[in-house]
Amino acid sequence: MFKSLSALFTLALMSASLPAGAQQAARYGLGRAPTPQEIAAWDIDVRPDGHGLKIGKGTVAQGQKIYDAQCASCHGTFGESNRYMPIAGGVRKDDLQTGRASMLRQSDGLRTLGTKLNYATTLWDYIFRAMPWTNPQSLSVDETYAVTAYMLHLNEIVAGDYELNEKTLLTVQMPNRNGFTTAHGLGRVNGRPDAQGSLCMKACVKEVTIASEMPEFARNQNGNLAQQKRPLGPMRGIDTARYDVGKTGTPTAPTAAASHPSDLLTRHACTSCHGMTSKIIGPGFNEIAAKYEGRADAKVYLSKKMREGGQGVWGAIPMPPQAGLKENDADTIAHWLAAGAK
Amino acid sequence: MKAMTGRVVPAPEGHLSAAQMRPSQSRRGFIRNSVTTGALAVTGSAFAQARTDPTLVPPWTRSLGAPVVTTGYGMPSKHEANVQRRQSPGLTPQPQASISFTPLQNLFGIITPSGVHFERHHSGMPEVDPEQHRLMIHGLVRRALMLTMDDVMRFPSVSRIHFIECGANGGMEWGNVAVPTVQYTHGMIACSEFTGVLLSTLLDEAGVDRAQGKFVLAEGADGSALTRTIPIEFALSDVMVVYGQNGEMLRPENGYPLRLLVPGVQGVSSVKWLRRLEVGDKPWNTREESLHYIDLLPDGMHRQYSGVQEVKSVITMPSGGQKLVGKGYYEITGLAWSGRGKVKRVDVSVDGGRDWQTARLQEPVLSKALTRFRLDWNWDGAPALLQSRAVDETGHVQPSIQQLRAVRGVRSIYHNNAVQTWRVQPDGEVWNVQVA
């Protein structure tokens, strides 16, 4: 159980308001008051001003251990993976002084956690509430401080011996802390637009030229358009099969009811790290099947391995435990692997 | 899925001669045919006449159909299998943190069938047990509240028709065309009749501190525990806590059993699987407000808390990826909307923006809802460039892509409300283009 400053704050506010007697009566009288424990369990948000901060600490070194075990498989050993938004990269020395990531001025500037984020509290909040992706809300307060510290270190924002805690978290100076503006109309009920069209009705433009069009190789990339339009009415979908150059993308049409284990692989996000026939981060399913072919306990072993995770069998990057994977689903996948992954 | 790729041909009236299939040349011809048929009917004997050729009557007329409740909760006809939500390949690496697009090219009117409402999940779709689900309201309120679904559904309710549009709708097309059809260019929008409780009703019940409370944090119960800051001026105007959609409960992929609805504001604020509302004095700067859903400008600054979906429109028929089957009459139709209120007017151009005509608006025209527009068009077989541009009741005119880029550059990702162009080729094919 962690100590929550905001829960204490809320309790103080509630109890302070009780004896006043000026409390306006509830109109409908529905619901009940949440218990302090319920508020403490749910109220985990942390704001840049320190609202909601949890008391705890963690070092860069501690964070690296957790990161390597639970984060690197998706985000890369150095936070460099661009499969998702990269954790690290693009921060320049001057940025720490100016508070503006100069990289973002370039048309091809790297957009990473380091070049974009304004406050370290947001990184802490997000890791604590939603990461690791397949096992959210599993990290302790101290572990969250440690992983946050390590990610800041990957961006060269804090030194290798840094300890992050509820005090230092508020003092971290992010490289893009001055890179945000609310001076626009999109955040207000009566905000003013910044791009106004024309009401011209006749002879509005002299010459119309085509500036951009669908290249032929891309015309079938979203699947055959003939199958995406109802075959009734005034128009039909264009049969774009003739543009198929053999580079079909991910399947776009929904698959039939889940029956094949490959549906489970997608549903449980196994395919983010494992290819059918090739290594992505972990080994391909066919490689796993080949390795355990003929082993009597393959099904039991693989099912357990999926749920508990492991490291070393296929290399240094560990497979995190898959807590969300139900035993019968794990068994189904393990059975399919043991039978050759076909 | 069975491929259904039919061509448009005259109805397969195989029993008709070519002369019979030709449309009536004149009213006189029609009358003459009628008179002849009438004369036959009068002279024939009602009792003695044999049954006409049964092959001219379809089999479903000559047989008994299926009973009621063949499906307890009905599904579309099997002939509608092409009408599907779809992902766009390469857009996201994971289907759990992804988007599926509404098939706008196949829809009529302004209400989106719930089954094809676009989806956006950040950590997959949770299975929420409505009996265990709770909504907590706390923070700068006099009475923190813990509400069951029973409680929420006992409050006075309202039903309103509103669109939900993802802030990234059109986000793939800032720099150039990237996707072939209106499903992918504009399909992160849907419009539904929503039923629920006004957020102001719930905040008043909790005794919101109107002096200090300037923002409301909304949090989802999914694995991302997604959080968004709602400014109090929005929260107390028309924001709803919603459980009903198009007459039924919310679908699981759209937030069952409870979601927030922030009309006119980018969809991420309409937090699905809503479990917590916290009133505070400052914005939260959440991950979805500082790493995503921020608009990158040419000078490297990001616009933060950019919520409102400004005036926008698109032609859905004819549109990219479709083929016209011949010259002649077509109805150009599409959708217009504004996050700031009602659509006032829609103009349509068939020549890339040289000349414009004002389209008809289908009633009802509702605030922060889709509005259907239509224009008669006689296609002469020549190349055409179809565009629509909407004006809302605040006087805001939908900008061209050049007008938008002049202010926001091409890296903004979010809030692309530019005029869309569809090129009609002489062969009848319609393709996505941008004009300069």
Name its key features.
heterodimer, A: mainly alpha, Cytochrome Bc1 Complex, Chain D, domain 2, B: 436 residues, alpha+beta, Sulfite Oxidase, Chain A, domain 2, Immunoglobulin-like, 2 domains, five-stranded mixed sheet
The shape of chain B is globular
Biggest β-sheet strands, sense, barrel of chain A: 2 strands, antiparallel
Identify the CATH homologous superfamily of one domain in chain A.
Cytochrome c-like domain
What is the terminal separation of chain A in angstroms? 46 Å
Multimeric status of the protein:
heterodimer
Describe the structure.
By secondary structure, chain A is mainly alpha-helical. Among the domains of chain A are: 57-171, Orthogonal Bundle (Cytochrome Bc1 Complex, Chain D, domain 2), CATH 1.10.760.10; 217-246, no CATH class; 261-338, Cytochrome c-like domain (Cytochrome Bc1 Complex, Chain D, domain 2), CATH 1.10.760. Chain A has helices at residues 5-17, 36-42, 60-70, 72-75, 93-98, 113-116, 120-130, 141-154, 261-267, 285-291, 298-308, 327-338, and strands at 57-59, 163-165, 180-181, 210-213, 235-237. In chain A, strands 1-2 form a two-stranded antiparallel sheet. The longest helix of chain A is centred in the middle third of the chain and has 14 residues, at 141-154. Chain A is globular and about 80 Å long. Chain B is of the alpha+beta class. Chain B folds into two domains: 99-303, Oxidoreductase, molybdopterin-binding domain (Sulfite Oxidase, Chain A, domain 2); 312-433, Immunoglobulin-like. Chain B has helices spanning 18-21, 27-43, 149-154, 182-186, 199-205, 232-235, 287-290, 401-408; strands spanning 99-100, 119-120, 134-139, 145-148, 158-165, 189-198, 215-220, 227-231, 240-245, 248-249, 259-261, 274-280, 295-296, 302-303, 312-317, 322-324, 328-337, 343-349, 357-358, 360-361, 371-379, 384-392, 421-424, 430-435. In chain B, the strands form six sheets. Chain B has a five-stranded mixed beta sheet with strand order 4-3-12-7-8. In chain B, strands 5, 6, 9, 10 and 11 form a five-stranded antiparallel beta sheet that branches. In chain B, strands 19-18-22-23-24 form a five-stranded antiparallel beta sheet, with no helix packed on it. In chain B, strand 3 (134-139) and strand 4 (145-148) form a beta hairpin. The longest helix of chain B is centred in the first third of the chain and has 17 residues, at 27-43. At the A-B interface, helix 1, helix 2, helix 7, strand 3 and strand 4 of A face strand 3, strand 4, strand 12, strand 13 and strand 14 of B.
